[in-house]
Amino acid sequence: MINEKEMLTNNIGNNIAYYRKKMNLTQLELAEKLNYSDKSISKWERKEGVPDIYVLKELSVFFNVSVDDLLNEHKIRPKILRHNQVKAIMYSMILFLIASVLYFIFRVLDFKIKTAYLFIFAIPLFSLSMFIFNVIWKKIILIYIYMTIFVWTLALSLDLLFSDLKSYIVYISAIPFYIFLVVLIYYIFIIKRKGYKK
Questions:
Q1: Residue 12, number of CB atoms within 10 A of its CB
Q2: Domains of the chain as residue ranges with CATH
Q3: Is pLDDT larger for residue 44 or for residue 3?
Q4: What DSSP assignment string belongs to 38-79?
Q5: Residue 165 DSSP label
Q6: Which of these, 29, 82, 28, lies nearest to 189 by C-alpha position?
């Protein structure tokens, strides 16, 4: 039977690994931020030892949680509810629900607009919403994917909305905007995070 000391060691190891992964950090990156060796982090996560009380306090400040959060066992929620991407998609799909309602209203009232465009216009809003969620969660690959979808579907929407404009003007104008966002995201999440040194 597992004793209290082993339970505490397990909880601390699991919680350090949990919060580290939640912040998208490797063991080495966490060790560098705390000025410890990655071997210490690995040892704690493998439940072969525990950090002392000063290090626990430092970890709690770094992870922005209480020391109790590091000591106590987390309640496991159903995986579908824990998965941030599923929740983000559900929230963002509200935009398509709004587009569907507007489509129905415009059809009933017989508005003289191309109502099918509402669904096309919802795509950049959906991708912008997903982009923001993933910026918060620091999911680099998904940030780039949703940013790409956002920029080019926004260009398509503007092309459809302003039909008197020449299409190539809209798409050519989107190129520097897209390049700017690519470089900005790279700087914020890659260079700055790794602490670029000259």
A1: 21
A2: 4-71 (1.10.260.40), 79-194 (no CATH)
A3: 44
A4: HHHHHHHHTTS----HHHHHHHHHHHTS-HHHHHSPPPPPPH
A5: S
A6: 29
